Amino acid sequence: MSIFLLAGCQDDAQDIEKWIIGTWNIDRYVQETYVDGIIAGESESVNQGEIVFKKDGTGEDLGGNFEGSEFEWENTKSNLFLTAGGSTTSYVIEEFSTNKFVFSITETNDRSKSVERWYFSK
User: 101-112 pLDDT, tens per residue?
Assistant: First the structure.
């Protein structure tokens, strides 16, 4: 049974890899800040340009608002790993379909938490 589950997860990761290839619009970027579990601030930007995921595992931020200009990428079923400037960041894939993609990153300190979320469409 474990082999079956592992194979299923691999298929899901390959599906994302297959469908992520191409140009995506960066529709929205939202940042939420929480202090002691209560929202303390929120900001939102819309129409942040486009991002391209290439089949060879590289990509390009055409608007310069996301990862700079060029990056490398790889994925699992639940995470997207982007490497730019020698640093790799792991993003949680919250939603993925052939025309919609949402991922986020959360940073936690002693009493605060910051959640950044990107919304993409084809």
Answer: 999 999 999 899
The CA dihedral of 45, 47, 48, 51, to the nearest 10 degrees, is 140
Residue 111, Cβ density class (10 Å: 0-12 exposed, 13-18 middle, ≥19 buried): exposed
**pLDDT tens-digit readout, 3-52:** 333 333 445 677 788 889 999 999 999 999 999 989 999 999 999 889 99
Task: Classify each residue of 29-52 as buried b or exposed e, where b means 16 or more C-beta atoms within 10 Å of its C-beta.
Answer: bbebbbeeeeeeeeeeeeebebbe
Q: How far is CA 68 from CA 1, 84, 96, 99, in A?
A: 43, 8, 23, 23
**Cα distance between residue 100 and residue 111, in whole Å:** 33
Judge contact between 68 and 84, C-beta under 8 A.
yes
